[in-house]
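REVIEWER CHECKLIST
Item 1: Sequence provided? yes
Item 2: Single chain? yes
Item 3: Sequence as submitted:
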Amino acid sequence: RFETSFWGRLANRLFLLFGDGTSGVLLDADESGFVLVFQDAEREVRVAAPRAAVSRVLRRMPSLPWTSGFAVEEGAAAAALSLELLADGALALRPVVVTVGEARVYERPSVAPFLLDQHVLLPGARTLLGLLAARRPFAEPETGDQALLDFGGEGYRPSPIGLPLDRETLVPREKVPRFLARHRAEIDALPEVLVPEELRGGGLLRVSGARLHLVSDSRSHLVVELFLLMKEREVPLGTVLTARRAKEKLLSFGGRLLDLTDPALDFVDLLGKGAIEGAGDAVRLRLTPLELCLVRAYLRGPVSITSESGVSPAALERLESSSPSAPPPPSLGVSLFPFQEAGLSWLWFLRQNGFGGLLCDDMGLGKTHQAMALIAAMTRDGGEAPSVLVVCPASVIPHWEEKLSKVLPGIPLVTHHGASRRELKPRPGVTLTTWGTLRSDVAGESPLAPFDLAVFDEIQQAKSPASQVHRAARHVAAGMKLGLTGTPIENTTADLVALLGLVVPGLLPEAPAARRAFESDEGRDLESRGRLSRLVKPFVLRRTKAQVLDGLPPKILDTRHCELSPEQKALYQDTLKGAQGLRDALGTSDRVSYLHVFAVLSRLKRICDHPALVGGSEDAGSGKWDLFTELLEESLASSLKVVVFTQYLGMLKLFARHLSGKGVGFAEIKGDTKDRAEPVTRFREDPKCRVFLASLKAGGVGIDLTPASVVIHYDRWWNAAREEQATDRVHRLGQKRGVHVLRLVTKGTLEERIDWLIEQKAALLGEVVPEDDPSLVKQFERSELVDLLSGPAFG
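Item 4: Structure as written out by the authors:
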């Protein structure tokens, strides 16, 4: 057998040529494959060597001298498949050899003559690279044994053992999305040289901009053609729509793969009936101005504008404008700061386009003033006073009455409030009403006759779509609706969605579509919030004091601690002993009476303020009272005016009695104060009126207390936002001095824990909930309630 084999015949031939005189054997290669070179001093013989024979010798005798023509490097290459998305959408899986380290790729046909079973000789190299053991990739075990049958065709056949490494496989266009989704992790683990960017996990093309081509426009609609920009490619909207309607997840376009699950394309599911006209690449969008805002909110990246030759420049300006148009006529009789003039221009832009909006400037920046300037501008533009409805909290009615009478004395003013009120209907001028009155007047009725303008002051009070006050606000019809609030988002983006639903109806889809599209959800937090931000940008204006008031004096926040007196300690411990059953219940899954929990917490807070609030003597000791009187005397001795806020009417009585005994002039506002303007005016204008006392609920909004420069929060509110609102009665536009804010906290008690929780859970406790509402404590976790009801660390 040996004599008839290749090696036997070769040995015989070489013996006849060289006898015993050959100097050795050299392994070489030319363009056709491996070559054995035999030579002596006179001659050289080159013999083509079968690859199988070379493999066998290398495998059995790797150290024979005749292999010295090449270096051998083990584990330096591997057989693999490279991926390429073809122009027709098919996916080509081509056999290649890839080197380890530098990751150079060689197509298998180019190295086929030099491909051994365990080694490969790369073109131009003098090194045999050892091949790593490789399994067939892209296995699909669930396909079953029948898929093992493979007759060598190029077609794609999912297999439990994977795809062959020695020939090309074509995955047809319709099966590419499933293949990429099924093998995403395996594809991403391949060397970068084997997988183009567009086929990697994050590399599928997504919307990066758009071009809007304006075909025609009217006051109510615009007809546009939309081209989506995906990197350097423009894709007609019709092409995308066709693929999405066919439930495809990927679209092959121009040799690239487009991700049809991109959230930026979801706007097509939210457009109104009739918004999409035509078919195929000829699709056009017929959009209302609000629908156009919706589309632009989804389209991340730059949006360019083109138009037909006959389209007017005004139409183009309208389409391109995402900021205020020209300001309204000057000389409105309203004095404005520059940032307020910008706010008025924005309001005028909304009115011109038939939009509503939310003015969300910080407390103290004059939201009421800007709303009145809009009323003045509308009066000037129309030649007569417009019909305006202002809805506000009852405590702010005097503030609006005072401002309107001073700023717009020529505009009729009607206060629609109280038992003697007339029918709520549009009339020239301003109609003032309260949220409670509005809720009572429109409950279960058909929508009111339309006003020219509706202003919702402190609109966050209607943030809950399920509330009666929200439903009442929806009944209000107006040519423009304006919401005023300093806290458009108190808990979640659902608050903003609800408020915009009141002032810009139709802008946001109704729930649950709104929640899916705009509220944060798992895995799409940033995407959904970014989309919501782009959508609301034209309709929400928010400026902070730091942005617009460079000269506003600083606000210094100072938390002062005190100790419980012996009388307070005894009361505190007795209350905790009586609450042992509540603590035990909170530690289990048993039902708990939150009304009882709230009652205990409220009693503990009153004890921290003063024993007199829980039936004790006014002469009983109180660590907080001692601290308060010390700080008050220090402030008055420095000729400073002071504002004091508390939650409890009992404390207001103690303050008033103390100040009267000291002969210190003071003014006061409580929930039952009828004439709020008188005490505010006296505090502002009378130098002998040194202290302003207010319940946080009654005095926290709608008044200007800028003559003061010290604010004392005698007790901590559950709600940090409410405290800040109250502080901003002093630290606001017109303040000339720095404001010192003192917050009094009793050490070792629930007040200390409340102070910490407010800082840790500001977003949760930012909700505006009445302090006397037991449901507030439901926002705390049970473990936090147990902590609040724990004993003090008296030491």
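Item 5: Key structural point noted by reviewer: The first strand starts at residue 25 and ends at 30.
Item 6: Recommendation: ____
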